[in-house]
Design goal:
eight-stranded mixed sheet; alpha+beta; about 20% strand; Aminopeptidase; about 230 residues
Amino acid sequence: MTSSLLPSTGPVSGLQYVRIAPHMCKALEALELEAFPTADPADLYDEAELLILAAEFPEGSAIGFDGDQRDEPVAVGLGVRTHFDFDNPQHNLKDFFRDAQTESGDDPTGTWYYGTDIVVRPDYRRRGIGKELYDLRKAICVDLNLEGIIAGGVIPGYADHKDTMSADDYVAKVVAGELYDPTLTFQVENGFEAPCALANYMRDPTVNDYASLIVWHNSEYVSPTTGSPS
């Protein structure tokens, strides 16, 4: 990532975005737990894992602070480079990186940005921060010439439908605009595809452990082998 991307100021929220640094990691662990109270803590980043990510791939991060309060992060977007098999998309968050060559899961040869985490503190939601984090991720892909973004997106609205339809049907209806999901609808509106649900993605009994695969394609990606857009 070039220095022109971060630090930066959120155009809507006014948050100050910087790269992850070791001194932030303990507070970021606390933010994870606050933002995802129904998730299994084992599926969330802890301080030790965040320290590793800060050392191995800080370029893939954006940490948001309100003004100069640098001891209290209120938003975070994290990710690593990876390869992805779209013919076999089913995976869960922990096992996907089990055989990675680095402790953080970052593969410097990877052509995709895998969004491992996006968090906004509950009292800062609905301020345009989520879109700013996604825009920063997209800028990372452009700057590092990555094919796009992949992630397992939470689908909190599925909790109200899990007894009446499959997760795949729910995702399809949200994509079609027939149902509203607080997270997936927002992602679709921001240019993401949602080709399928992911079973057993992370422990969250409120949605039977399901997430949605989300994909954004970088139209500016240039194949290093052909030298042309892919």
